[in-house]
Amino acid sequence: MKEKVEKVIEELRKYLQMDGGDVELVDVDEKSGEVKVRLMGACGSCPMATVTLQQGVEARLKEEIPEVTKVTKVP
Questions:
Q1: Can you list the positions of beta strands (E) in 1-75?
Q2: Three-state DSSP class for 71?
Q3: Closest CA to 4 of 50, 74, 62, 70
Q4: pLDDT of the residue at 75
Q5: From CA 37, how far away is CA 24, in angstroms rounded?
Q6: How far is Cα 7 from Cα 73, in angstroms, rounded to an integer?
Q7: Are 65 and 4 contacting, i.e. CB atoms less than 8 angstroms apart?
Q8: 3-state secondary structure (DSSP) of residue 53
C-alpha cells in the first residue's frame, strides 16, 4: 500500500509545487489505513491548507486507494 500512496503523492506534488507548496509522505499505517503527510512551503502556512489536505490530497488518495481511511497532517 505504501508504494501506491507514494505514487499518488508524487502525482499531486507537481500541482502543489506550482503554487509554491509541497507535500511529503511521513507514514502509512496499513492496518488502520491512515496516511500521515507533512505540508511544506506555501502549503505549510496557508490558511487553505486544511482544504488542500482534505479535498485534494485525502480525496485523491481515497479515490485511487480504497484502503486509505484518512489523511493526517503532521508538523
A1: 21-29, 34-41, 70-73
A2: strand
A3: 62
A4: 87
A5: 5
A6: 18
A7: yes
A8: helix
**Residue 75 CB neighbour total at 10 angstroms:** 6
Q: Is the pTM of this model over 0.85?
A: yes
Which three cell numbers, joined as nine digits, stand for 71? Answer: 489523511
Q: What's the CATH number where 31 sits?
A: 3.30.300.130
C-alpha pair distances (Å), 65 with each of 20, 46, 47, 49, 59: 26, 27, 27, 22, 10
Structural domain range at position 28: 2-73
Name the grid cell of 15. Answer: 500541482
Taking only the tens place, the pLDDT of each residue in 29-45 is 999 999 999 988 887 77
* Structural domain count of the chain: 1
- List, for the chain, all residue ranges whose pLDDT scores fall below the cut of 70: none
Answer for the pair 46, 52: CB distance below 8 angstroms, yes or no.
yes
